[in-house]
Amino acid sequence: MESSSAKPSVDSFEVIIVGGGMVGTALCALLAQAGMQVALVEERSAPLRLNDVNGALPAPRVSALTPVSQRLLTHLGAWPTMQQTRVTPYRGMQVWDAEGSGEIVFSADEAGVAVLGHIVENVVTLAALNQQVIDHPNVTTFFGTGIKALQRLTGSASPRYPASGDWLVLDDGRQLHAPLIVAADGAHSALREMAGIEVDSDNMQQDAVVTTVQCAKPHGGTARQAFIDGRPLAFLPLTVAGDDRYCSIVWSTNAEHAAQLSELSKEALGEALGEAFGFRLGQVTACDKAHRFPLIQRHARHYVQPHLALVGDAAHSIHPLAGQGVNLGLMDAAVLAEEVIHAWQRGAPWGELSTLRRYERRRRFDNSAMLGLMKGFKVLFGSHDPALTLARNLGMSGMNQLVPLKRVVMRQATGERGRLPLSCV
Known about the structure:
This protein is of the alpha/beta class. It has helices at residues 22-33, 67-75, 79-85, 108-111, 122-133, 190-194, 255-262, 266-276, 325-345, 353-382, 386-400, 403-413, and strands at residues 10-12, 15-18, 38-42, 62-65, 88-90, 92-97, 103-107, 117-121, 139-143, 147-152, 166-170, 175-178, 181-183, 199-215, 222-228, 231-240, 243-253, 284-286, 291-300, 304-305, 308-310, 316-317. A hairpin with a 2-residue loop joins β16 (231-240) and β17. Residues 1-6 and 155-163 have low confidence and may be disordered.
């Protein structure tokens, strides 16, 4: 029996990632495939496997993955598996103001791309990414455990890894050391809080209501979104066993309305969604109850400290209006991996600020711009001022006639912004 006074064992790695969601697992795969020794720490008791997600109906939480994100997932080897499971491409988008006549239509042909994106269940993406890392020889996983403490140290920390670094103490007492620790543990990041990084928060005064429905008419590979009294309602296309009448619903609405929707029977929920959407896809049948979660935009004041970096929702969380949240996080992972691997390959200290600040500079502006844009949309479409209502309807209708301008907007929406990391090209 081990003495209670015995020192806990210490495991050293080149990078430790806290958080095994889509962004953290993608980062883990990128680093491991480059040859780095990576630890992945996740509170969930076991990794999500593809056998766990092959249900008859899609899961309620989905993402609109851009072609840039698709290229990253292809680079990681996850995309073919996702295609075999369930992904739904969309080639068109329709956005309109339910309080007026403004409407804008986007198409892949106008953008000069094969597709505008794919609607994919989050569990499908995560399971496919897990398949790339769980048995990888360069990855050590710590599932079913959280973190108890972050210990900040400088100087030589390990004979194996002489670079300075930080230490994590896990819930079970084990200690992990690495020159770089990454917080990928979500919007309520415990690691970010332990590091003392402050966050600017903006309560959007809305909840997101999500569910899966079957419509009377096929979706035709088009994503649709209506602004109803400042509350965007999206019907995102899903194809289930060849049936293209399914949609994933995301309705961003006030808390009182969200609570009402979550209490409706499936029959009443389907009727309410169909009526709110003007029955553009005919009668709507809800396949599941409504699930809800609050919408709060957050942005960390700093993405990096010596030996520490934030990615994904730990660095920023965004309104689901444009479906960009996971795409921004995956781009964080790709850029951070590129900077860290480049430093590691040339023998430079990959956990030092000189390396990590390059990641922050490349990502902060893009994330800030998208957060600001989503806040602006909420203000614009949430206003009941007659002059502003007229202006936004005229603006949407006018823009719909300007194909070159629409092409620029669509290029931005498909993720083609700034200097892309090589894994996304």
